[in-house]
Design goal:
By secondary structure, this protein is α/β, with parallel strands linked by helices. It has 15 helices and five strands. It folds into two domains: 173 residues, Rossmann fold (3-Layer(aba) Sandwich); 135 residues. α5 links the parallel β3 and β4. The protein is elongated, with a radius of gyration of 23 Å.
């Protein structure tokens, strides 16, 4: 395991660590698939846990580890918090569990940008040292798509020749980045975005700033995303975007400049203002496209959002335009970042192009 002084790249700011989270919301199908295999004595040695960020992948992995090492039999993966294994895992002192995540660079004292082969060598040592004790052992890799090439090849060898009694749990946000041979040697558990009811239940015990219903609406079924938006005052930024687009077809230029300037602020511990602004712009365009097909979404994520979307996207033709604008905006943001364009200037340019397309009756003109 590790110790409490180690920085935790797998912790979402403002939320309990996944090992501390007592309940998984909205993933009954994945839980049933895993426990069905385990209780039928068909437990695979490698499990790839995938799905959008913030949907409970790491929480599920820790819950599975706790259940396996306590010899659990409950089909919902429940384990009493008073169980010795549960207490040891919470304290990061369970000897039969090894956690692999990005480590600290000894030279800089900062977290590395990837999982290196040194971390996997520690995992191999764990399996070698614990082999004499027998019984089940669990390795949890979070996130597996952060492994560099050497680390990935070392894990592949483990999956090809797994140690006796070993179970490897690989959390992956972008499984396509993994070696195809790693994916093929694992059984996959795919987690889905949470429903509005599950989002509300998951957010209820957390200390979130802002209306939980509006955060859930913007977070697209991701508790982690809702917490990120909460920590960066995302609801206020989204309200700025709604208010700005409500001035179309003659976009209020001072308001656009204010939004662009905010996006160009320096990144902080809470996050990158440019990334936040682009995420929320993307979310607005997505909701505009959906409004043309299905009507304005409920619940509203900002004051007067429904009325603005009803006016801007009244039919399927408008919906197609906003959908094309969304795709073009994402591509333009990637190109701009690749050549280090000024974030504020990039956002202002995109807003003005969107305004021109709207004025011409063709939101797709952004491309």
């Amino acid at each position: 395991m590790t110790d409490e002084t180690t920085p935790e790249p797998d912790r979402v700011p403002g939320a309990p660590h996944p090992r501390e989270t007592p309940r998984i919301f909205g993933q009954d199908a994945a839980i049933a698939e895993f426990t069905g295999a385990a209780l039928a004595h068909r437990l695979h040695h490698g499990w790839l846990i995938t799905g959008p960020r913030g949907t409970g992948k790491a929480t599920l992995a820790w819950t599975i580890a706790r259940w396996l090492l306590s010899d659990g039999t409950a089909p919902d993966l429940s384990v009493s918090p008073d169980h010795p294994v549960a207490r040891r895992i919470l304290a990061l002192s369970e000897p039969r569990l090894h956690l692999v995540r990005r480590g600290v660079d000894d030279k800089t004292g900062r977290l590395r940008s990837e999982i290196t082969v040194e971390e996997i060598r520690r995992l191999l040592t764990f399996f070698h040292m614990s082999a004499a004790e027998g019984g089940r052992r669990v390795a949890l890799i979070d996130a597996a798509d952060e492994m560099n090439a050497s680390a990935a090849n070392a894990v592949l060898k483990l999956l090809e020749e797994p140690p006796q009694g070993a179970v490897l749990l690989l959390v992956a946000h972008q499984p396509a980045r993994l070696l195809p041979t790693i994916r093929s040697r694992c059984r996959t558990l795919r987690l889905a975005p949470l429903s509005p009811d599950d989002m509300a239940a998951a957010l209820a015990p957390l200390d979130v700033a802002g209306d939980p219903a509006r955060l859930a609406a913007l977070a697209a079924g991701s508790v982690g995303e809702a917490l990120r938006l909460s920590g960066q005052d995302g609801l206020a930024r989204y309200q700025q975007i709604v208010d700005l687009f409500d001035t179309l077809p003659r976009m209020d230029r001072p308001r656009a400049a204010a939004l662009a300037d905010a996006a160009g602020a320096r990144p902080s511990a809470e996050g990158d203002p440019f990334d936040l602004t682009m995420t929320l712009l993307d979310r607005f365009l997505s909701r505009a496209a959906r409004a043309g097909l299905m009507g304005p979404p409920l619940p509203e994520a900002a004051d007067r959002e429904g009325a603005a979307l009803a006016r801007l996207s009244p039919d399927d033709r408008a919906a197609r335009g906003w959908a094309a604008a969304q795709a073009a905006l994402s591509a333009r943001a990637r190109r701009g970042r690749a050549v280090n364009l000024d974030p504020a200037a990039l956002v202002m340019d995109m807003l003005m192009t969107l305004a021109q397309g709207s004025d011409a009756g063709d939101a797709a003109a952004l491309g």
